[in-house]
Amino acid sequence: MIIVTGATGTLNGATVDHLLKRVPPHQIGVSVRDPARATHLADQGVRVRQGSYDDPSALRHSFADADQVLLVSSSDVTADVVTQHRRAIDAAVDAGAQRILYTSAHGTAFDTPYPPLAIHAATEAHLAASGVAWTSLRNGFYGDPAQLLGAWQETGVIAMPADGPFSWVDRRDAAEAAAAILTTDDPFDGSIDLTLPDPVTLADFAASASELTGRQIDRVVVDDETWVADATASGAPEAVARFTLSMFQATRSGHFAHSDPTLSRLLGRKPRSITDQLKDLNVR
Fold first, then answer.
1. Cβ distance 142 to 176 under 8 Å?
2. Range 246-268 burial, b when 16+ CB lie within 10 A, else e
3. pTM for the structure as a whole
4. What average pLDDT score do residues 173-192 get?
5. Rounded CA Rg of the chain
């Protein structure tokens, strides 16, 4: 039995879709905050139970009979996320899971300029102390490229703070890799990096955008404080702007420059490139 949390979200929802291609539905369970949003999975024979990182008793019930539990990192910005993760790990242990997997992030460490990485590091430390086998899926950055690049289609420029090399993976590839790990005999113990074969920069995004649109898209470097001021003038809270800035600062320190072939090996092909990912946007 494989139990997946966050299965109504984009990442682990796609993971469950891939699992359904690999194992019978009765071997899959999901732990979700709102089971009404998972009726499409129940209709396919997947076990659906309510669970919340804030309710250990419900988690233990939703994790019952699990051989493996895949925990998605919490997206609750108002919560003590590390405590939530610890509750989920402890509940999986109490439920008798033999392996716990966790969606972490590439570059995870305590001493980085990007705050979420310390949260992942603390979670990994709790996993390592849990007494059961564990795997941390250190995914490269993923999400909507429009959030990373700004209004480049309207302005013709990617105007962001100075950056450095990093991996921007397609969430669909991260989900497929997670499903492969959950259904392989290879234990994948500890942390594993799931990145592009070669890191990219915003200049690479500009080149890909230029190729796709047939017009020149320039990469313009904006001074950090000027960028924060512009972002707040556009309505973003300063704390949010500085949080985003910390990601750029972490990339340009070389923190995400390392690449790894594991994602390619799990997929049996090259991961979707940034050009592939931009093609999914309504580029013009």
1. no
2. bbbbbbbeebbeebbebbbebee
3. 0.95
4. 97
5. 20
